[in-house]
Amino acid sequence: xxxxxxxxxxxxxxxxxxxxxxxxxxxxxxxxxxxxxxxxxxxxxxxxxxxxxxxxxxxxxxxxxxxxxxxxxxxxxxxxxxxxxxxxxxxxxxxxxx
Length: 98
Hints:
3 helices, alpha+beta, 3 strands, 3-stranded mixed sheet
């Protein structure tokens, strides 16, 4: 099932109020089924290469996740968002392995 237009709109990077301390390049979303068989969303947040995971503040990550969660709810999306983070280089490594 393709991701709804409302979901894409809710996670539009230009509209989200994300913390500036975590530079996000793009957000990708796809339908997902959780371990319990319930429908959900898989959200991939692609971070700038400059992000050092050791220096990212947990509160800022929480703010980022909450902004996405709140925007989804505001747009009437009630599916739970499983949010994952990666840098382009990490995604390239995964592509090379496949």
